[in-house]
Amino acid sequence: MSKRVHNNSPHTYTAVASSEAPGDEKYHLTATLVDDSVRPARAIESQYATLPELQNITWTDTFFDDDDDIIAVFDYDYNAMESFNTSTGFATWAALSLYPPLLGCSLACLTPCYLRANVRWSVRAQHVAVTRDGIRYVENRRKTGWGLSCTDRGKVSKTVPFDKITDCDVQEPAGNSCICIKNILSVVNVDTASSGQGGIKELRLAGLKNPHGFKKLVWAMKRSQGNGFPQVPASLEMARGVKTSNEPDVTSILLQIRDELRTHNDLLQSMKMKENLAANPAAVLTALDTLDAAVEGDSSSKSKDT
């Protein structure tokens, strides 16, 4: 009996088995297996379908399956996150032995007994996706503390729009945490114009399986939306260049603006004269007398000529 397995595509497998009976009869069995747990990237709009950053992205997280604006989902390495966070958690708890009161409180609260469970609940509640609007990060409802319903933590969702993002970079793991625990998680830091105060990030994603693919797709989406132009409503396109009977003439509008400016200018001049009169009334009266005398002189000369 012989067996063969063919990999027809990245997510499709065909198994062929053949056997030969003693009576020279041959039997062949063929089975095809399609791995539905791996989902390719789905583009909502045609302008995103051509992005090269989307071509090789796959995921297994089903949390966003009911959302219709998802471009791609990025999986967390939950196992690595649980291992690292559990180790750092126990190391932090062990450090409490230096301060007996806190150590006693943690023992009374059964912290060591529920540490692994709390890490698992916290880690596996995290989900992140790239939508056509921005980065969507969700912490699903989860248990905390002793796992009782009264200690549950509600769902938290946050979306960072692409036009608000000023930086998106990857921090590679290096060094140790708590002196002896090796850092194994890559961290994606997302900044906006309002973040960065005191080192606070708008979004900090630790433990993604494909952090560099996430970064490349975010920048590609930001560029694609930045190069786009807003669509002009059809009603404006139809009315463009067509002057209706109710549309005011540009010349009449300019004339109205000129008249308004003249009125304001006359008003300012009168106000200035009032201020001068209040400041130095004698000088103003002298100027008025001089003006009246000049006017009378002109009128008398005109009468002699006649």
Gist of the model:
The chain is α+β, with helices and mostly antiparallel strands.
Tell me about this structure.
With 306 residues, the chain is α+β, with helices and mostly antiparallel strands. Helix content is 40%, strand content 24%. A hairpin with a 5-residue loop joins strand 2 and strand 3 (26-34). The longest helix is centred in the C-terminal third of the chain and has 30 residues, at 250-279. The termini are far apart.
Summary keywords:
alpha+beta; 14 strands; four-stranded antiparallel β-sheet
**SSE arrangement, N to C:** EEEEHEEHHHEEEEEEEEHHHH
Number of helices, counting only DSSP H or I runs of 4 residues or more: 8
Q: Helix amount, in percent? A: 25-40%
- The first-to-last residue Cα distance is 141 Å
Average of the residue pLDDT scores: 80
Taken as a percent bin, the fraction of beta residues is 15-25%
Global morphology: elongated
**Largest sheet entry:** 4 strands, antiparallel
Note the topology.
Elements: E1 2-9, E2 12-20, E3 26-34, E4 39-40, H1 46-49, E5 58-59, E6 70-74, H2 78-95, H3 100-108, H4 111-123, E7 126-131, E8 134-139, E9 156-161, E10 165-171, E11 176-177, E12 181-182, E13 187-192, E14 203-206, H5 211-226, H6 234-239, H7 250-279, H8 281-305
Helix pairs in contact: 2-4, 7-8
